[in-house]
Amino acid sequence: MRLVQSIRFRTMLLFCGAAGVLMVGAFIGAYVLFYRAVTARFDHQLSETARPIIADQIADPEERDVDQLNLPDAYFEVVSQQGQVLQRSKNLKTNLPLDLPNLFPSGPAFQTVFMPDLGEVRVALVPFHLGEEEWALAVGAPTQEVLSALSTFRNFAILLLAVSLALMAIVSAFYARRLDLVVGQLRQFVSDASHELKTPLSVLRGETELLLNRSRSPEEYEKALRIIDGELKMLSRIVEGLFTLSMADAGQLRFAPEQVFVDDVLEESLALAGPFAKSRGIRIERNLSHGVVVSGDPTFLRQLFLIFIDNAIKYSPPGRLLRVSLAAGADVKVSFEDEGIGIGREHLKHIFERFFRVAPQDDAESQSGGLGLAIAQAIVQAHGGSIECSSELGVGSVFTVRLPFVTILQARFQKP
């Protein structure tokens, strides 16, 4: 027993440590990317602010337009090549403490300076020619907004990291507790889970290294952040799925039962999946009995129905039909019949196993993370029901959920 407990602890520690290091690295990389993107956008705004003012200065050099400027949170100076301040906006009490040797680069240059009365100010230095002379327009703005955005992102990232690490520790602890009964199964699970986490983490690391390799445009940073956001969401879904299954394994997937109208939950689920179905060209046909009531949890039931609806949409060719039906007899029967790629007969008995993988053309779970149907089975079992599946390759699949029947309420459909 001591050996098993030692293996259990070391496995949990190793898994949490490895995942924690990778997640910390991913969050640090995301913060660096966000910092660079926000700063680049701020610098771009300063450069754009300078352009019309420079155009006015070139068009009428005798007018001292900059001396008349008094815009809130925007400061301006015209500086000669020798570093002399020629014009200064009204809201500047003293000259900007610029790094004079670097005033005249080939293009806009940026500095961050500190002023006692204004605090930290970001300055864009934009050179321009006026006849034979070379001047530069300095455009400054306080950095409070940028610092606030960075602080918000940093606090959110720290909170999300802490929650993710806590969830990872909980998942690891639940599975480690079962190690004395299923040591071999747990080893396989750790291997599979690590494999699933490896892909999004590798994408995060790759995107981070690619962007840190050299400076990029704001559009490239925004595109990379969208990729990082998608991979973080995938990580979150995997961790949440593992947590749900760990609760089910421990017999803790419980809920406070209430009377639920199944047709209402089905309609909500179909509405949520509607845009996805439309984008894939999938038509949905409903055949729902009304007023069918079961005892259960509406949130879990919605998640259950969405798993089957999303799988049917995702793995059906465009233009196909998804039939959703609800009927009540000895029990409540909810069926999802698609015209998708189908599942091979030899794989049917394995489709509810976690991380089960076959070729994409054979199995609707092959690209879904391998947890969807396992979660669906856990939810159905927690409701005292069952799932049946029949499928034929190239024809489609039918998933049927059976739940204990409570009653049919017709009163709400009667006109007064």
Protein architecture, described:
By secondary structure, this protein is an alpha+beta fold. It has three domains: 2-39 and 148-249; 59-145, Beta-Lactamase, CATH 3.30.450; 258-413, 2-Layer Sandwich (Heat Shock Protein 90). It is 49% helix and 21% strand. It is built from eight helices and 13 strands. The strands form three sheets. It has a five-stranded antiparallel sheet. Strands 7-9-10-12-11 form a five-stranded mixed sheet, with helices on one face. Helix 6 (262-280) runs parallel beside helix 7. It is elongated, with a radius of gyration of 30 Å. The N and C termini lie far apart (68 Å).
SSE map:
Elements: H1 2-59, H2 65-68, E1 75-80, E2 85-88, E3 109-115, E4 119-130, E5 133-142, H3 144-177, H4 183-212, H5 218-249, E6 258-261, H6 262-280, E7 283-288, E8 292-296, H7 298-314, E9 321-328, E10 331-337, H8 372-382, E11 386-392, E12 396-404, E13 407-408
Parallel strand pairs: 7-9
Antiparallel strand pairs: 1-2, 1-5, 3-4, 4-5, 6-8, 8-13, 9-10, 10-12, 11-12
Task: Please name the defining characteristics of this protein.
single chain; 416 residues; alpha+beta; Beta-Lactamase; Heat Shock Protein 90; 3 domains; five-stranded antiparallel β-sheet; five-stranded mixed β-sheet; 8 helices
